[in-house]
Structure prediction request, 1077 residues.
Amino acid sequence: MPPIVSVRVAQLASELGARILGSGEVTVTAALPFDRAGANCVTFIGDAKHLRKIGECQAAACLVPESAQGQLPAEGPTVWLLVADPLDAFIKTLRRFRPERQRAAIGVSPQAYVSPKAKIGPNTNIYPGAFIDDGAEVGSGCDIHSGVTIGRDCQIGNDCTLHPRVTLYDDVWVGDRVTIHAGAVIGADGFGYRFRNHRFEKIPQMGHVRVEQDCEIGANTTIDRGMIGPTIIGEGSKLDNLVMIGHNCELGKHNVFVSQVGLAGSVTTGDYVRLAGQVGVADHLHLGTGSTVGAKSGVHKNVPEGETQVGYPALPEQEAFKVAMATVKLPEMRKTVRDLVQRVEAIEAATLAESRKAG
Amino acid sequence: MPPIVSVRVAQLASELGARILGSGEVTVTAALPFDRAGANCVTFIGDAKHLRKIGECQAAACLVPESAQGQLPAEGPTVWLLVADPLDAFIKTLRRFRPERQRAAIGVSPQAYVSPKAKIGPNTNIYPGAFIDDGAEVGSGCDIHSGVTIGRDCQIGNDCTLHPRVTLYDDVWVGDRVTIHAGAVIGADGFGYRFRNHRFEKIPQMGHVRVEQDCEIGANTTIDRGMIGPTIIGEGSKLDNLVMIGHNCELGKHNVFVSQVGLAGSVTTGDYVRLAGQVGVADHLHLGTGSTVGAKSGVHKNVPEGETQVGYPALPEQEAFKVAMATVKLPEMRKTVRDLVQRVEAIEAATLAESRKAG
Amino acid sequence: MPPIVSVRVAQLASELGARILGSGEVTVTAALPFDRAGANCVTFIGDAKHLRKIGECQAAACLVPESAQGQLPAEGPTVWLLVADPLDAFIKTLRRFRPERQRAAIGVSPQAYVSPKAKIGPNTNIYPGAFIDDGAEVGSGCDIHSGVTIGRDCQIGNDCTLHPRVTLYDDVWVGDRVTIHAGAVIGADGFGYRFRNHRFEKIPQMGHVRVEQDCEIGANTTIDRGMIGPTIIGEGSKLDNLVMIGHNCELGKHNVFVSQVGLAGSVTTGDYVRLAGQVGVADHLHLGTGSTVGAKSGVHKNVPEGETQVGYPALPEQEAFKVAMATVKLPEMRKTVRDLVQRVEAIEAATLAESRKAG
Prediction:
């Protein structure tokens, strides 16, 4: 356990450039989320919509947006710290109470295997149990953790972190400042077979994978190599845990895919595409720039630029909402229809009787 | 292959405290499930509802519940063993034919890396290729298998098993008698970004993970660290393979999540919550104590205590069942509605003609 | 980067037994997919249905099916190579430009741990960081990559590849020519508990796993061991990444499961069963030989031989299609029904007024 840090609120305010409403003489020893923050804590309210719970604040000090000034309770245990960006200020505060650990400086561990034909940049740590094969190149300032495998002729940029047990197959290209979380597998063979002579015959997967700069790849996520060309994860994209990217997919820049998303082969995306958890996308589709797909949806058609889709099958949001509403009301509608059938039958019978009388 | 064990049924009955119906002089050499058990085997029927297939029994001996006595066929190849708890008795029988392997006693392997600043309890095995970082503490009687990584300042209780390639990031806390299966990743960064300057900026994930006593975590499951505080897996909870637990989630005690379940961030649960396979739960929801969610459901609202929900979107079971029934019958209902439209049009036309005549 | 290879098209044609339409004197230096192939490239069109885009071909040479002869544009930059099987010919061409890497010949690495009670066949590579436990047997011609764990008494056939970080628990049986991709976990405990004394008590999982010859298992896929007997992956079956196979499942031959599929316990399948991505199958079901299930479907009943099912819940394809169509049109139908209700009310009111008048 790290030593306990205590800070006067006035000191904190001065460091954060915050305006104080209340006494700066209180001392705080921890930074915690709103619901957990008690008498010795500093906390925060990130935005206007969370201000409604401000009366319940139990913390000694609370970072709030400047715009909140008129709405702060005059009484209560809390000193208010007005800042432009409460989340940002809170992150700085957290760092103050829990300073980031220093990077280890172990260099190339003698318990790692590094091929004599591999190149390792300066200021890079290769932990025990890592395995770096012939022709691989790792840039400077990288952390290659325990049990990582880097295949033949891979190229890793500068300032990358590969967490424990990451596996890169041969020929994977990774840009600068990429983080890959534990257990992720990049460059395994795509799932391609031909059905011949009553069995599935493997189609060789001779492509590679390209993970561009500033990407973050989640734990146990898998990204398959292209069959002929590359599978591409565009610059700045973030993939959560247990995501599957099929062979030949090409993602644009700044895509965000939540956990357990699955893309079949040869899907392409524009920039700023957002997929919520457990979404599945069929092969060879295109998701346009700025498009969004809701959780658990099944996408089986191209998604136009800027459109939000939801559902299984996925439909444009408004439409999907109407379908979902109508679906939930189906049992009621079924009764209405049965009732109508009876009423129409009654009318028909009456009309028939009438016309017989008349006849 | 282990040597074949043969046992007289009378001997088995005596060990299990079973009452024999038939001859105890038969010898059995294997314990197999009902459908696979032949002439030299002992098998079992776990409960009353499986008794209907009792006439098909081919085994030499069969463990049955005491309550079954009146329903046992008088003829046939099988000796009946009446016990209070047939599954329990069968597990003991299995152990007799296939004795559990002894724990290895390898201590701390010289092919593992254990930081001089880590502490390892007595009677704990650290296998080759494990990596234990500064400040980590492992209790007594643990098996830390090959390729496991235990990050800085982690604390592992007593009698824990970490199967091969388990990765614990820094600051993970694990209670006594916890089993974590191969490839699980505990404590990777939560998936938190802010969108600023046209890119996704990482929000530091400074929390930790707490896995309480008697939990079992499945293979390749991932549990992210909290952003500020902990992600908690409550005492006695069981997570299957490939499950995803997002950051800040707090699970109560004795939860059971089947494989490929995904919880978004900040979900909380009561005790005894059961989620079937591939369920997804949206962020910040609460699943009440004793609630259950059916396979592949998508939960987007709190689930009340004790309630069972199913579907996408998830609804209370009865309601979901009616919606599903009505959905399957939709094409039929569509025809009925079309037919009604025509009939109503016909009536309207007739009425109009009538009123014209009358007019 | 490998050296650039250049080949005359006439030479290529002769090697492939292709008939040339155009000049064989052109030189090509790369083989790329149709959409990416430019002036110095050879590409291919696999089958008749892709011939419609043939006019857009920018490649120097294009492999086409012999049947396409009448449909080839006379003008344009492309020389046509007619072959019986364009994909096959293209794969050979790819190999010519990017020769396969030679297998390493490292034998048993001194940085691996191999139990003195294990047996390793001739011409097998055991990479650094691999761990092979007591009683395990590995055949000849295998590649056991870095960080692989092979448990006690496992048996691996000949010519198998276990990619980095594969974990086999004790007693796993693997046939000849099996490929297992990185991070896959075979033989972890099945998910079986009894609820007793207010907690979930583990049911010991004493079975094993059998992966038959010519199977391929995807990255980070998990296959649990049987409770009593085996979990079986039948000959020639192919499982993609992040697939979950529960305990006691028995797959027939030549099954193909796309990524993120999940089978609950005790599912059995015939031969040639195909499951698309993210399908879930409930426990104890049987999927008949030649059956197919569409992406993201939830299967909760047996699937008959040869049948294709889709949906959540899964239905026979034609039925599912009608339900999906009707579901999408639900909001419209809801309007129709409301409208009908009003019209019928109007008719009823009119009829009532009429009968009063008459009365």
Q: What stands out?
A: The mean pLDDT of chain A is 94.
